[in-house]
Amino acid sequence: MAQGQAGGYRILHEADLRDYLAAAPDLGAILGGEPAAWPITEVGDGNLNLVFIVKGARGGVAVKQALPYVRLVGESWPLPLSRAHYEFLALSRQAELAPGLVPALLHHNETLALTVMELLEPHIIMRKGMVAGTQYPRFVDDITTFMARTLFFTSDLALSAAEKKEGIVAFAGNHALCKITEDLIFTDPYRIAEQNRWTAPYLDGLAAELRDDLDLHVAVSRLKLKFMASPEALLHGDLHTGSIMVTDSQTRVIDPEFAFYGPMGFDIGAVLANLLMAYFASAGHERSPGERRAFEAWVLETVEQVWNEFARKFLDLWCASAAGDAYPASLFAGEKGAARLEAERHAYMQRLFADTVGFAAAKTIRRIFGLAHNIDFELIEDPKRRAISEARAVRLARAMMVEAGAFPAIADVTAAARKLRDWKPEFTAG
Is 24 exposed, middle or buried (0-12, 13-18, 19+ CB in 10 A)? Predict the structure, then answer.
């Protein structure tokens, strides 16, 4: 599957890519037909990479190549190509732990920072479907299975200390991608930063409030420290609805190039944040008042189910597969020991939930005031309507981060979101 390349890295454009794929017998067999007839379309709409869809007479593939810079910004922001290596490692490990929930890997070239994967059809990016108001009945079961298995089986609950540390080492070099998260999520939205942007002028006052809110600065700094210093499990690192492809019956998680060992709540919080943002954005996509209420009810139900099902599956794995060095069984022998360990499992989940709520808040705020935004909000054409939806999301996020004790359960989060659905912010500008 992995293949080296004489010479150095080069960006593959259509003609180069065609020649490269044609020279790889396994890929040529998957595509079929004459290479000259293969349609090649560049479809990358993310922030970092080139992504091509290639179709032949027999089948198709998806090709992803890392660029030596941040695509969203350009060559002024260089970025190491090694992120393709870490993405390949992460996808390989995720395929072992959560089979059928990531795309199949077909080919990898480390020198070219290039990976060829199965073409997911008729899957679409989940975020696009949610903007359109589409409900996905398989999503909860699939994403909770993915998170529970990938997080549990790379944690100290399942691994020996040596195995866990080897895993940390394998991903430790992905620090450039971690630095992006540390800056863009936990730091820049709360200060004046050149690449910040928001829906001006309506959110100008709110942006200024965030920059002066020291309670919020303390809360987000605690989250940043946990992100940097708590290697609990192998994270996807960018697990949002733009990194999930879906149909009514299938879910596939893609793009784990931000993978590293970090706090579990970061991945879970990312999923919940993007669902909550879809909820608040929904009103801005209405063509008539109330037409998306059923979709919004499904989103909030999904928020609750994602946490509840994840927690249930994670605890089931802990009870059945606790082979790690954490919580050694010899310390919890007998009936009293078993009862005490069971109580500790639930206390562990409460701590994890608190982390999840905080990280969800941080992920929300960055998507409204930082560099990279969500189409959930961006596709609301009227800027004032967009700002109203965003202000509602930020109001909830600030409370989730600073008033964490007000959210002891996932139902408290959805109840607060529901109360803010029709809240009318007063803008200090616009």
Answer: middle
